[in-house]
Specification:
The protein is α+β, with helices and mostly antiparallel strands and about 160 residues long. The chain is built from three helices and five strands; from the N terminus they run ααβαββββ. It has a five-stranded mixed sheet with strand order 1-5-4-3-2.
Length: about 160
């Protein structure tokens, strides 16, 4: 019906001394035309991008994979680190985390417009620590990760 719906409300925590003043910016989004066949085709493309990203992490490492699949305006949310709003800062945050990570997708959804979607699941690193993850994907010269959130499971 074209209305926005909240699917997930999640966040991270970071030390108070790491607070930073972040410039607020807002973008007015244009509602795209909806077409069920186009959305299904786009969903297949998004899942192909997610699968390629996961395989790239295994083959080329996490940093190179994010360099390839990240949107220029990717936001990265990691426990204990201040959120980032650009690809370069996001990759620096990702580089601070364990590099050997396996992602296991659980589910995905795509907007009826076919230009925005998300995947979520869990990841396991080399120390056998696990996290939940959410990737928000957007069409930007192919599918790119617009938001990346990983939150460790409590032990």
């Amino acid at each position: 019906d074209g209305t926005w719906k909240v699917i997930v409300d999640n966040g991270i925590s970071y030390p108070k001394e790491k607070k930073q003043k972040e410039k607020e910016s807002f973008v007015r989004l244009k509602l795209a035309n909806t077409n069920q066949n186009a959305a299904e085709s786009a969903n297949a493309g998004m899942l192909e991008a997610e699968n390629s990203f996961i395989q790239s992490v295994k083959n080329s490492g996490i940093v190179k994979s994010y360099q390839k699949y990240a949107s220029a305006s990717m936001r990265v949310y990691r426990h204990g680190l201040f959120p980032t709003t650009k690809k370069e800062g996001g990759i620096a945050s990702i580089n601070a985390a364990p590099h050997q990570v396996n992602f296991y997708r659980v589910a995905s959804r795509i907007a009826s417009s076919g230009d925005l979607g998300y995947t979520y699941g869990f990841s396991v690193d080399a120390k056998n620590d696990s996290s939940c993850y959410i990737h928000v994907w957007k069409k930007e010269n192919g599918w790119k990760i617009a938001v990346d959130l990983m939150e460790p499971f409590k032990k």
